[in-house]
Design brief:
The protein has 322 residues and is α/β, with parallel strands linked by helices. It contains twelve helices and seven strands. Bound molecules: thiamine diphosphate.
Length: 322
């Protein structure tokens, strides 16, 4: 284990922060006060945090519809994100983006995206910017197994190879795209294997294990920063909730989810390993958990009282002025 205790507790705090964000939204959504569709990231936290651990504000990420975790991991303020989901003026995007269009350019976060797979060309374009400007920054596209079948994802992969761009295609394979199993929707045995046909190196990793993600990404990000072109990563992971909030999940058994929560929960796995190796204590982890529970109670209470956007704000921020 090369990570210090401080780093370990920091990465745990980030993963737990995402979990608390999502559990809070799951609970509070039942009151009907959060407008729009919600797709929760619970179970997948090790991916966002293990990837973003190697990125700075000058590196870009492009997210998808399941984007809260990516945003928190890239450093966005969760208090302002909660405000945003409640549609309030103080929200990260003035309350006008909500869950599926949340973005934070100061953190290099190009935004969540309701068009499946559309982050791939965006991240590839951002990587072209990095290359043209002569920077050693990278760009990461988070997308799902469902998105991996989209034509523009393939076009982006090809362009990234021929232009030798510093972009990482990070596929979060949670086994299901809406209600369609990956075994049905993907013709090949492995999504990662497709990368070879584009001339791109690839890795397949365990996305329920923070250390597997962290170690793999250390090498992958270094490869891209050094100007060696793009990389493809397929991370096998699991989503604990439905495709969207309200999904009756007729396509999978309750036992599958219970089993995943028991054996493939990235937070539980992280805690067990770190405690077993004597690097932190149960009390230290519990204290992080209770701090976050209290923090989110405050964020929600504040958001519910916060001001709505002014009516005139509707037509502001439509076009960018350079
Ligand atoms: C281009 C496009 N096609 C279809 C949809 C409808 N849709 C929204 S999410 C989704 C499933 C995406 O699955 P995946 O990429 O595996 O991500 P996950 O939801 O599993 O995180 C679909 C088909 C869409 N929003 N955009």
């Amino acid at each position: 284990m090369s990570l210090t205790k401080e780093q370990l507790l920091d990465y745990y705090r980030k993963m737990r922060n995402i979990r608390e964000f999502e559990e809070t939204i799951h609970r509070e959504n039942t009151t009907g006060e959060i407008p729009g569709f919600l797709h929760l990231y619970c179970g997948e936290e090790a991916n966002a945090v293990g990837v973003c651990a190697h990125l700075s504000d000058d590196d870009y990420i492009a997210s998808n519809h399941r984007g809260h975790g990516h945003c928190v991991a890239k450093g966005s303020d969760p208090r302002l994100m909660v405000m945003e989901l409640y549609g309030r003026a103080e929200g990260l995007c003035g309350g006008k983006g909500g869950s599926m269009h949340i973005a934070d350019l100061d953190r290099g976060s190009l935004g969540a995206n309701g068009i499946v797979g559309a982050g791939a060309p965006l991240a590839t374009g951002a990587a072209l910017t990095q290359k043209v400007k002569g920077r050693d920054n990278v760009s990461v596209c988070f997308f799902g197994d469902g998105a991996s079948n989209e034509g523009y994802v393939f076009e982006a992969m090809n362009l990234a190879v021929i232009l030798k761009l510093p972009v990482i295609f990070y596929c979060e394979n949670n086994g299901v795209g809406e209600g369609t199993g990956v075994d049905y929707a993907v013709g090949a045995d492995s999504i990662a294997d497709r990368a070879a046909a584009f001339g791109m190196p690839a890795k397949k990793i365990d996305g329920t294990d923070f250390f597997s993600v962290y170690d793999a990404m250390e090498e992958v990000v270094a490869h891209c920063r050094a100007g060696n072109g793009p990389y493809f990563v397929e991370a096998e992971t699991v989503r604990f909730y439905g495709h969207f909030e309200g999904d009756p999940q007729k396509y999978r058994l309750k036992e599958e989810i219970d089993n995943a929560k028991l054996h493939r929960d990235c937070l539980k796995k992280f805690r067990s390993r770190v405690i077993e190796e004597g690097l932190a204590t149960t009390e230290e982890f519990d204290s992080i958990d209770s701090d976050l529970v209290a923090a989110y109670k405050g964020y929600v209470a504040e958001a519910k009282q916060a001001a709505w956007p002014r009516p005139e704000a509707l037509t502001e921020d439509v076009y960018i002025t350079y």
